[in-house]
Amino acid sequence: MLFFLPLHVLLRLSTVPVATAAADSSLGSKAQSLAALTLPPQQPSFSTFSLELLLPPAYPVLATPINLPPPCESALPPSSSAECFASSMEALNVTFEDCGTPYTICRCGDAEMTMDTAIRRLGQVPVGLRRYVATVLALAEGTGEARAYTVESGDIHFFGECELDTWVHESTHAYDFANPNAWQSSAEGWAQAIDADTCVPDLYSQTNIIEDFAQLSVIMIYTLLHSGSLPPGFSAGCMQHQLNFMSALDAYVPGVLFGNNCNIIDNGPTARHTESPATLDPSRTFTTFPVPKQPSLSSLQDMPTGIINSGGGADTNGVIPASGGLGWTTIYCLGALIWLL
Ligand SMILES: [Zn+2]
């Protein structure tokens, strides 16, 4: 049986007395173990930067209409977990230029995000994280703000026009959950890193160790793209241990993360998309953006330079704000988890 538990609900539960949460038999043990973090945020939000212009998309080479797969059928009435109430839902199998294993994207007929936008944003997620994503659902925003959540299967549900930072955040959850017996965010080293630090990136990172992991991933992606320089307004010092933990994970080796092939052999959890593309594009090479005047992450100074040059795309010119606070808007993910009971 499926139980949907939006994270804003989870957040409330994490702050109520333990006895109350434990009395809710619909919650799995993982939910009950989650607690809000007490470290202060370094910034209120990620409003000083955006990954949108930094990550060029892998281009779709094939898009084939398919019948709705089970994760998408479950989003339709009369399912008790219905999230799509339009008269139609379409599903495509999309093959990107850097991976031979297609991705399934379902779009509800009244979703604000077009199928083209969903394909582009999924293609912008670095292949080292994208390889863990299962089915993507684009749904109507409805009441509230744009939001998204990821389930343990790696399926991601987007409501409204979620920006690329949210896609990276959710794809990080898919990576985090890939080994059901050993979530990355459940690693002892991650808890120790948090304990050793004196801040988390932003307010949303305070939600729990899972959300802190996903938010730090967004920071890490930006930092790797800027030769170790953190986003405007952020510095490494108070969250150095968290950065060190993440930078030591195989998935965050820059040449892999930003590579041109989802067929990656490493010691990380088993990915969902692992077949080499039919044709590798050698022009997709790894280069960095100019380093803004920001504090550097010393442990990452010697990393290879890099971002993929996909050879096209006017929206991939790498221009970033010269200084912080220039009006980028980040739509937060209101994450959620599904427990199979
Ligand atoms: Zn999340």
From TrEMBL:
Keywords, alphabetical: Signal
Name recorded for this polypeptide: Uncharacterized protein
Superkingdom of the organism of origin: Eukaryota
SUPFAM superfamilies (UniProt xref): Metalloproteases ('zincins'), catalytic domain
Residues in the signal sequence: 1-21
